[in-house]
């Protein structure tokens, strides 16, 4: 998972990345006259999918590479892109049939052999900055003919595998251009034009100005782009990005404006702030060994009291100005199988009396001394205001005394992984919009959080949802799983889910249709 493998969820956070001036030189002509001009602070790490595992690179990959399956705009269910169809042909084999006549912009054919090469290459290179980890359940890939690709999996009936095929680990590359065992430089990629997505790159000044031209031969899920030319301008400062979109110097601002800037832009008569449910999430994680409480029942009561006392609406509206929304399950709204289990069990609003009863019934003396850790370095400067508000909310009940501490990111990561914090801030940005990606990393015995949670009942439910092929039955298992977690265990307290947000001029159409939990911003739907 992107957030897990790079030890970072800040891609979707509020921190601004300094990117201007770090390009590797121009390739091609100038920026040209842009039909649509997009601004962003997200930088490109690499145009080579084997080395790219970040939002800035994903923005580029979404436009220029084809995938066997992809996420339609506004839909979290994978649909055929370069493939005609995909399905399990046995419990451990997932097979795809390719569309006929596919080709790269340079004229090279795109066949099943291209797909096999792409997956074999991703696994072989295994770049430390790349997304190979997403393919951990892939045993090997075969291409018995030009139209057939067979993926043999280590674990049978993995219902998440189709959702991995639209991710950065599964971009299809040209075997005549890319070396099988090493990463290719961006300049060489742009010159060779090994692209088969809706767009090709016509001009490339890395992390400064990049021009995309519609690919007339694209034959995939998204159809012909509505705008022939899209240019991306990169910003070092979010304040300059805000100013340019507000003044009409660019058409769209995509990642990353602060809540204050977004709130200000909502009053402008020149732009529209578009937002929709996204995939990133924020939690309080409890270390079940070191959190307060004299026994497991008391510890659970304290977690329930926190979950009941916190005011999610106030956090979303007062701190984040509506750019985040209340979260009532580990799985955010918009992801198939998501529920609002926390709301169903404990209610939508903070309830001091209910929190007090949880503590009293378990014999917990109040006020509970709770040490709570957070970091501004990774999750953005607004974290200070967020956790100050949480401290005030909990202490206002009279049930808690909160010791709030902030730590820089490197030390934070080390300490929270080694029992350093009884309770701590955590965020998650998934690789694909499947509920399993919000559950398995947190709730298995060897979970990524290392908070000493593990239960055979939950493990059994996780295994059941992973291998259930009937979507309706799987949704039912996921609903039960989320309810059981929130009612009986609650090792993490869900707080907020981030919205996908873009700011665009009033004359720009199509923005709303590409804002969804896949986090793929598709230039082809934009027009003016």
Automatic annotation (TrEMBL):
Pfam families: SBP_bac_5 (PF00496). Gene3D superfamilies: Dipeptide-binding Protein, Domain 1, Dipeptide-binding Protein, Domain 3, Periplasmic binding protein-like II. GO terms for molecular function: peptide transmembrane transporter activity. Belongs to the bacterial solute-binding protein 5 family. This is Peptide ABC transporter substrate-binding protein. Residues 78-447 form the Solute-binding protein family domain. Residues 1-20 form the signal peptide. Its main location: other. One of its GO terms (biological process) is peptide transport. One of its GO terms (cellular component) is ATP-binding cassette (ABC) transporter complex. It comes from Nocardia terrae. It is found in: Cell envelope. Keywords: Signal, Transport.
């Amino acid at each position: 998972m992107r957030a897990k493998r790079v030890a970072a969820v800040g891609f979707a956070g509020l921190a601004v990345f300094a990117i201007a001036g770090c390009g590797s030189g121009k390739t091609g002509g100038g920026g040209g006259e842009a039909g649509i001009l997009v601004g962003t602070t997200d930088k490109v790490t690499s145009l080579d999918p084997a080395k790219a595992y970040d939002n800035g690179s994903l923005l580029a990959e979404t436009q220029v590479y084809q995938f066997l399956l992809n996420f339609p705009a506004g839909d979290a269910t994978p649909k055929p892109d370069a493939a005609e169809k995909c399905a399990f042909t046995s419990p451990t084999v997932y097979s795809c049939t390719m569309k006929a006549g596919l080709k790269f912009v340079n004229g090279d054919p795109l066949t099943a052999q291209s797909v096999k090469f792409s997956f074999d290459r991703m696994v072989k290179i295994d770049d430390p900055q790349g997304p190979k980890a997403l393919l951990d359940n892939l045993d090997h890939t075969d291409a018995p003919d030009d139209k057939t690709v067979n993926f043999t999996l280590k674990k049978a009936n993995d219902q998440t595998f189709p959702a991995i095929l639209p991710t950065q680990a599964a971009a299809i590359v040209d075997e005549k251009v890319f070396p099988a065992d090493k990463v290719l430089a961006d300049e060489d990629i742009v010159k060779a034009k090994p692209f088969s997505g809706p767009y090709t790159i016509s001009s490339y000044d890395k992390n400064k100005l990049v021009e995309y031209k519609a690919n007339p031969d694209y034959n995939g899920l998204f159809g012909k782009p509505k705008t022939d030319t899209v240019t991306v301008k990169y910003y070092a400062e979010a304040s300059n990005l805000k100013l340019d979109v507000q003044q009409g110097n660019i058409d769209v601002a995509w990642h990353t404006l602060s809540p204050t800037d977004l709130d200000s832009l909502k009053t402008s008569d020149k732009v529209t702030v578009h937002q929709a449910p996204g995939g990133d999430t924020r939690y309080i994680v409890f270390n079940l060994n070191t959190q307060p409480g004299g026994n497991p029942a008391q510890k659970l009561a304290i977690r329930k009291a926190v979950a009941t006392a916190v005011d999610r609406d106030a956090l979303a509206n007062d701190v984040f100005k509506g750019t985040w929304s209340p979260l009532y399950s580990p799985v955010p709204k918009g992801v198939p199988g998501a529920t609002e289990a926390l709301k169903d069990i404990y209610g939508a609003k903070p309830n001091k009396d209910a929190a007090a009863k949880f503590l009293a019934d378990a014999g917990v003396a109040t006020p509970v001394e709770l040490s709570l850790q957070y970091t501004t370095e990774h999750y953005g400067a607004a974290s200070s205001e967020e956790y100050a508000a949480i401290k005030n909310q909990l202490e206002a009940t009279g049930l808690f005394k909160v010791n709030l501490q902030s730590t820089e990111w490197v030390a934070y990561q080390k300490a929270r992984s080694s029992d350093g914090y009884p309770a701590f801030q955590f965020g998650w940005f998934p690789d694909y919009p499947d509920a399993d990606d919000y559950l398995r990393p947190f709730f298995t015995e060897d979970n990524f959080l290392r908070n000493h949670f593990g239960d055979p009942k939950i493990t059994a439910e996780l295994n059941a949802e992973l291998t259930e092929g009937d979507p309706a039955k799987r949704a039912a298992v996921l609903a039960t799983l989320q309810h059981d977690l929130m009612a009986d265990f609650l090792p993490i307290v869900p707080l907020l889910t981030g919205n996908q947000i873009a700011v665009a001029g009033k004359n720009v159409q199509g923005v709303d249709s590409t804002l969804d939990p896949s986090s793929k911003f598709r230039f082809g739907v934009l027009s003016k």
